[in-house]
Specification:
It is a single chain. By secondary structure, this protein is α+β, with helices and mostly antiparallel strands. The chain has a single domain, classed as Creatine Amidinohydrolase (Alpha-Beta Complex), CATH 3.90.230. Helix content is 28%, strand content 26%. The protein is built from 4 helices and 15 strands. The strands form 4 sheets. The chain has a 5-stranded antiparallel beta sheet. β11 and β12 form a beta hairpin. The longest helix is centred in the first third of the chain and has 24 residues. The chain binds magnesium ion (MG) (2 copies). The site of one magnesium ion (MG) has 5 residues, from loops. The site of one magnesium ion has 5 residues, from loops.
């Protein structure tokens, strides 16, 4: 499933299917969240999400994605790992923060969302990072209305993050989503209000602030997937798939 060029506007019928894909994805993430505690492996987290998708008769969007093909249903990223961590034998420890990203395909449409959470008790800095990253996502969602442009969304995310003294990623962006997991437009986590693509009813965009404590530079590990902060600092990631509708922003990836 490569990046699909061109912006597709979804009909109300398509949005209803995407809402169902998003709901299943949210349930998968809830199951993943429920197993997170010290001693659990990142593979255990992945298995919990995978079971939910399977039980709903849906398909995982990440499994086999890209090159080399991604080998799991979720990405699980710990501490300095920002996104795209490969689930495996790593055991979570008290004080870690873990980000879980998942994609579900239902009746041909994709739901894409992610959360980050602390493992046991975490540092004050880690708590602030989680709070700010989630607040940045909420600020972006509020800008998902038809009179705005993508730059309004980007600028709102950036402002929340930088006002808190943190950094937004440059190398990875939010994105349109629909029949393909990645569609136009790209929605960076930084930008200028009033610029970019005009938002229209029926657009569906995965907003995903990726936030780093002390750098905006990233590196990719030798496994070709895992993206880490260049300086080893903590990172967090929250994501929702959101539709622009006549009634305002509609979050598709809630339970
Ligand atoms: Mg995602
Ligand atoms: Mg995404």
């Amino acid at each position: 499933m490569p990046w699909k060029r061109g912006i597709s506007l979804k009909t109300p019928e398509e949005l209803a299917i995407m809402r169902e894909a998003g709901r299943i994805n949210a349930r998968a993430l809830a199951a993943a969240r429920a197993v997170i505690r010290p001693g659990v492996t990142t593979a255990d987290i992945n298995a919990a999400a995978a079971e939910v998708i399977r039980n709903h008769g849906a398909q995982p969007a990440f499994l086999g994605y890209g090159e080399p093909p991604f080998p799991a249903v979720t990405t699980v990223s710990v501490n300095d790992e920002l996104v795209h961590g490969i689930p495996g034998k790593r055991k979570l420890r008290e004080g870690d923060i873990v980000s879980v990203d998942c994609g579900t395909v239902f009746e041909g449409y994709v739901g894409d969302s992610a959360f980050s959470v602390g493992v046991g008790s975490i540092s004050t800095l880690a708590e602030k990072l989680l709070r700010v990253t989630e607040a940045a996502l909420e600020a972006g969602i509020l800008k998902m209305v038809a009179a705005n442009r993508t730059g309004d969304v980007s600028a709102a995310i950036q402002e929340v993050v930088e006002r808190a003294g943190f950094q937004v990623v440059r190398d990875y962006t939010g994105h349109g989503v629909g029949r393909a997991m990645h569609e136009d437009p790209q929605v960076p986590n930084y930008g200028q209000a009033g610029r970019g693509v005009p938002l229209r009813e029926g657009m569906t965009i995965a907003l995903e602030p990726m936030v780093l404590v002390s750098t905006n530079e990233t590196a990719v590990l030798d496994n070709h997937w895992t993206v880490v902060s260049a300086d080893g600092s903590l990172t967090a990631h929250f994501e929702h798939t959101v539709a622009v509708t006549a009634d305002g922003p509609l979050i598709l990836t809630l339970e």
